[in-house]
From TrEMBL:
Domain Ketoreductase, first and last residues per copy: 8-187
Domain of life per record: Bacteria
SUPFAM superfamilies (UniProt xref): NAD(P)-binding Rossmann-fold domains (SSF51735)
Similarity comment: Belongs to the short-chain dehydrogenases/reductases (SDR) family.
Oxidoreductase found in the keyword field: yes
A GO MF term: oxidoreductase activity
Protein name as it appears in the record: Putative oxidoreductase
Cross-referenced Pfam families: adh_short (PF00106)
Organism of provenance: Roseimaritima multifibrata
Length: 249
């Protein structure tokens, strides 16, 4: 189900900055005819429209607001590729006083938000021939870092949902991609204190569309992520990506 974004329509959540912004730009560079910039505040995409003209169409998407996602799916009824990039992070260990509040906040955006986007846009992708759906997960989905334990838990859950979507959406001809960056130079990465170890967001954008073009489920986007991915590869191929229905039946 490899898929070429040239002459296709793409939607990117959280498109106004960081990974989302460079992903939108990468889609345009690869020949997408139009990219929906899915953002919480429409005016935050003004600079993108000013730069790229009518190839960028702002649409309101707030992962906390299911009605905004449903409305966006109606507006973007011609979309072929959905990149669910938007997410949140709190700095909270499992023992932090605010750990449960932090986890609830992260789960709502990173997991329930993903599910809302998939449920809203899955039928749209099916109607348009299948297309592709990419979810921004993280190396934190397979390795917990103590100071970000709640974030890691939410990303582990979003990774689990993404695995389920690989089968559910795959049945309708939709390619699903699970993207696992390490520390990246974004506002979120800066707030987390990643500093000099953070990689360029352009690496993530390139890796997303390379994976879509080459029918790869797991994407390890940068040097740190690739180290994790190399260690995880056997499990990924032989368990996560394997058809285990017979052995479980």
């Amino acid at each position: 189900m490899a898929f070429d974004v040239k002459d296709k329509v793409v939607l990117v959540t959280g498109a106004n900055r960081g990974i989302g912004k460079v992903t939108l730009e990468e889609a345009l560079q690869r020949g997408a005819t139009k990219v929906y910039a899915a953002v919480r505040k429409l005016d935050s995409a003004n600079s993108l429209v000013a730069e790229h003209g009518d190839r960028v169409v702002p649409v309101r998407v707030d992962l906390d607001d299911p009605s905004s996602i449903a409305a966006a799916a109606t507006t973007a009824a011609d979309v072929d590729v959905v990149i669910n990039n938007a997410g949140v992070m709190k700095t909270a260990s499992a023992m932090s006083d605010d750990a449960i509040d932090a986890l609830q906040f992260e789960m709502n955006a990173n997991v329930y938000g993903l599910m809302r986007v998939a449920q809203a846009f899955g039928p749209v992708l099916k109607a348009n021939g299948g297309g592709a759906f990419a979810q921004l997960n993280s190396v934190a989905s397979v390795k917990t870092f103590p100071d970000f334990a709640t974030y890691c838990a939410s990303k582990a859950a979003s990774y689990a949902i993404t695995q389920g979507l690989r089968s559910s959406l795959g049945d309708q001809g939709t390619l699903v991609v699970s993207v696992h960056p390490g520390p990246i130079q974004t506002d979120m990465g800066s707030a987390a204190g990643f500093g000099d170890i953070a990689a360029s967001p352009e690496l993530v954008a390139t890796a997303i569309f390379d994976a879509i073009a080459n029918d790869r489920f797991h994407v390890w986007t940068d040097p740190m992520a690739q180290q994790v991915g190399a260690a995880y590869q056997s499990f990924a191929e032989n368990v996560v990506e394997a058809d285990m229905q017979e052995s479980l039946g």
